[in-house]
Write the structure tokens for this entry.
Amino acid sequence: MPRDLSPQTILLVKATVPALEAHGLAITRRMYERLFENRAIRDLFNQSHHGETGSQPKALAGAVLAYARNIDNLAVLGPAVERIAQKHVGLNILAEHYPFVAEALLGAIKDVLGSAATPEILQAWGEAYWFLADVLIGREAQIYAEHAASPGGWSGWRDFAVAARTKESEIITSFHLVPTDGGKVLRHRPGEYLTFWLEIPGRPPLKRNYSISSAPGDAGYRITVKREPMGIASNWLHDAVQPGARLKVAAPAGDFVLAEPVERPVVLLSGGVGQTPLMSMMQALAKGPSAASVRFVHGTLSGATHALAAEARDLAAASAGRIAVTTFYERPRAEDRQGEHYDLAGRITPDWLRANTPVAEADYYLCGPRPFLRDFAGGLAGMGVPAARIHYEFFGPADELLAA
């Protein structure tokens, strides 16, 4: 365990909160500029959160500010620390990488704040950084060890072959993966994702995370990927990756997982391709020992974008009424038949959830784009659903110090 932060460090870090509020984004942008001068370190990162969307510096600025504000009450950051550790394990980040981030962060603070970044401030932030780094390094070592020791588990990158691909909608395709060594795979927790090292001709290596959409098992995995208009990796997967192709894959990771044991009703709420981890959860619930009721509520644009529809309906039909599926189409096409392809036109609303799901007792699992999550995480909280029963995942950068 790392040593406790000194009282002087806590005071100095908290004193930098106003500066971080004013200049945090400039600091994190400069940090990444410095960090990415090292090509080997640059290749550890998911560049879709940097070059393609530019969203990671903003997320990191928020994380650094939250750390400074809560430096005297770090227990509140526990869930964020677990999320960061899981991301790092997926990316195969090791203890030896942390000094590079420390140097870049402290250098960026000095570059942006100038003379206000006194030696005392820099020393305090150095101590604060390494306190958090040591916590993460310790937790990540535990996860790596657990993966390596589990049946079918592995450390580092493992070669998988695409056994099959299935077109699920006009913009979504599933890829079925099996290890090329013929061995078993680590049985994932429903909701986890796989991290891929993608070698696309003419480009530097890319890292991407894709949720596992299949039921837990030991033979292989399925990922279900939406083609993004500007997505380098998703377009390459859709256009170039055929059965027989090989991909480098890290062991399953993630903190957005189905709680066990399942003791309350479950509501799975998704928008667009956010259904992928929830499909894994629904399959596990359909096959598991729990008798809890399950409500899968999914919203998409139309039948053109609706993936895994038959699979969801089949799970419900075989459940003897324990699983119910409700699908919303925002803009149904002429060929989309209500009652067959979808249930309701329009968007899911908090009012509909209040009237049609067991708000007083259910666990809610949400996955979708940020606006979707803002609406429903806030809406459920406004209905009185305790925070401990609202679980969510979004597709985008995590708020972390060594970013994905």
About this structure: The chain is about 40% helix and 20% strand. The mean pLDDT is 92. The longest strand covers residues 158-167. The CA atoms of residues 49 and 128 lie 25 Å apart.
